[in-house]
Amino acid sequence: MSEELALAIVELNRDRALNLVKSRSEKGESPLQILEECRQGMTIVGERFQKGEYFLAELILSAEIFKGAVEILDPYLTATDPQESRGKMVLATLQGDIHDLGKNLFAALVKAQGFEVHDLGVDVAPALVVEKVKEVKPDFVGFSALITSVFDAMKEAAEMLEEAGLRNQFKLMVGGGIASEMVKDYINADFYTTDAMEGVAYCMKSIGGKR
Ligand code: B12
User: Which of 36, 132, 154, 193 would suit a FRET pair with 14, their CA atoms being 20 to 30 Å apart?
Assistant: First the structure.
C-alpha cells in the first residue's frame, strides 16, 4: 500500500491527490483500496484539526478533495451494478450533524450491490425518518454519525420508530466515525461499523435468506 495518496490529501494537494486517484484507477487498481487510502488521509486531517494544527478551512478543502476522488472512482465502483433490487434502505445523517462523505460513499457501494437507497441527506429531523420508513417499508435503516452531539437525535428516531410499531420490520445500522458498540446499544441498533464494506457485507448477509 502506498502512502502517497493519503499524504497528498493531508497536505491538501488537490491536483496531486486527484491525479493519483485517476491514474491508479485507470491502471485497474481496486477502487476500494484507493478509497481506503483517501479515508486514512481524512483521518489524519481530523487529528490535525483536533490538535489545533488545522482549522475549518482545511477540513473543507479535504472534504472537497475526497468528493473529487469519489467522483472519479464512481464508475469503477458501480461497474457491476446489478439490475434487480436486493432490498430497500432508508439512510440519513440526523439532526445536528452535516457530515455526509462517508454516508454518500456507503450509499454508492450498497447501491452497486443492487439495494434501493432512499437517502434523506443530512441534519434530518427524527420525525422525517419515521415518515419515510412508513412510506418505503425498508429492510434496513442506516444512520451515519460523525459528531457526538448526534447521539440523542438517533436515539429519538429509534424510539419514535419503536413507538410507531415499525422497529421490528427492518434492521437498524449505525455507521460513521463515532459508531461503536456503545452507540449501537444506546440506540438499540442491530449493527454498527466504521467500515462501509462491512456494512455492505452485513446487508448482503441479512438479506441472504430472502432471495
Ligand atoms: C471532512 C470533515 C468535515 C467537513 C464535512 C464535509 C462533508 N460534506 O461531510 C466539514 C468541514 C463541513 C466539517 C464540519 C465540522 N466538523 Co468535521 N470532520 C471532517 C473530517 C476531517 C473527515 C470526516 C470524513 O468525511 N471522513 C471520511 C469518511 C469516508 O469516513 P466516515 O465518515 O467515517 O465514513 C466511513 C465509515 O464510517 C462508513 N460509514 C459512514 N457512514 C455510514 C453509514 C452506514 C449506515 C454504514 C454502514 C457505514 C457508514 O463508510 C465510510 C467508508 O468506510 C473528520 C475527522 C474524522 N476523523 O472523521 C472531522 C470531524 C468529524 N469533525 C469534527 C467537528 C468538531 C466538526 C465541526 C463541529 C467543526 C466546527 N467547529 O464547526 C463541524 C460540524 C458541523 C456539524 N454540525 O456537523 C470532529 C467531531 C468530533 C466529535 N467526536 O464530535 C471530527 C472528528 C474532527 C476532530 N477530530 O475533531 N467536518
Answer: 193
